[in-house]
Design brief:
globular, alpha/beta, two-stranded antiparallel sheet, single chain, Rossmann fold, 10 strands
Length: 301
């Protein structure tokens, strides 16, 4: 197993640094990699013009009310960059499954780097949401929540034993997977991806309440989410796209800067990834592309 882990780490190191060099037009050495994480934000009063895509649950005049007659539509936003944030959700260095890790590496090198670089240059707020256990260890953690809010006491119902499926409820558990230890060895401890390291001044948040308080403090209303996994953390995290939309923010997922976890029935067409994106578009959120954001600064798109 150690040989496999080492080869995966080598893969990450080579592809990440190689992609960084290609994106910035510099030599693929460690100093070049570091340059992305030391460039300073520019102060800007820019606008951002994007055309967020959503699923239109209506049909055109004269069309029958059928699912096949519904489809995508776009809005046209020209919004202050000062009210926008790029939220980097669970952009970790590893995944225990090879295919989502490979897809993520390709996305990070080809799409994520130029997006992050342009957002930083244009003064957009960058917020890192890497999970509580990663956030609290980083010096950029904003610490806008208390220990009690970070680890809230659960209600007494359902009972503690039932929630943990222990004691008299243990028969309801899923079966023990003997390779779970192997998975944990591959992914723990979770770490920032080397290209996603927070720069000085970039916020690191631990949970959804903290993200909300930070946005309130900064006057942020529009959140653009990039990260992994589309059909997992983007939906289920309390700092994810769905939960922040429920808090009242205008949320867009950068659809070419995310990928989901597939299985043998869905992998060929990335049905889980595309289904999750369609879910957002259908039920109150939006999607955009990285190119839209990159070309949209100063309202040019």
């Amino acid at each position: 197993m150690s040989n496999k882990n080492n080869s995966r780490r080598d893969f990450l190191k080579k592809t990440s640094i190689g992609g960084l060099g290609a994106a910035l037009g510099v030599s693929t050495t460690v100093p070049a990699f570091a340059s992305l994480n030391t460039v300073e934000h520019s102060v800007s009063a820019e606008k951002l013009r994007v055309k967020p895509r959503y699923h239109r649950w209506h049909v055109n005049e004269g069309a029958e009310w059928l699912e096949v007659n519904t489809g995508h539509a776009n809005l046209d936003w020209n919004i202050p960059v000062s009210q926008c944030a790029l939220v980097l959700l669970d952009v970790w260095s590893r995944h225990y499954l090879k295919e989502p890790e490979d897809r993520a590496e390709k996305i990070i090198n080809e799409k994520y780097i130029p997006l992050l670089k342009k957002c930083r240059e244009s003064g957009m707020t960058i917020i890192h949401a890497p999970s509580p256990q990663v956030a609290v260890k980083h010096s950029n953690w904003v610490k806008l929540i208390t220990e009690a809010e970070l680890n809230p006491v659960r209600d007494t119902w359902p009972p503690r034993e039932f929630r943990g499926l222990s004691g008299s409820y243990k028969d309801f558990r899923r079966p023990f997977e003997p390779r779970e230890v192997e998975i944990q060895a591959m992914v723990n401890p979770h770490k920032f991806h080397p290209i996603a390291m927070p720069m000085e001044g970039e916020a690191v948040i631990a949970n959804g309440e903290e993200l909300h308080r930070y946005c309130k403090q900064k006057g942020i209303l529009f959140l653009f989410f990039a990260g992994f996994n589309t059909n997992a953390c983007m939906i289920t995290r309390d700092y994810g796209a769905l939960q922040m939309s429920n808090r009242g923010y205008q949320v867009s997922v950068v659809r070419d800067c995310t990928t989901g976890m597939e299985n043998k029935e869905t992998q060929a067409k990335l049905l889980q990834t595309n289904g999750a994106l369609l879910f957002f578009e259908m039920f109150g959120q939006y999607t955009v592309t990285s190119d839209e954001i990159i070309t949209g600064f100063s309202g040019k798109a």
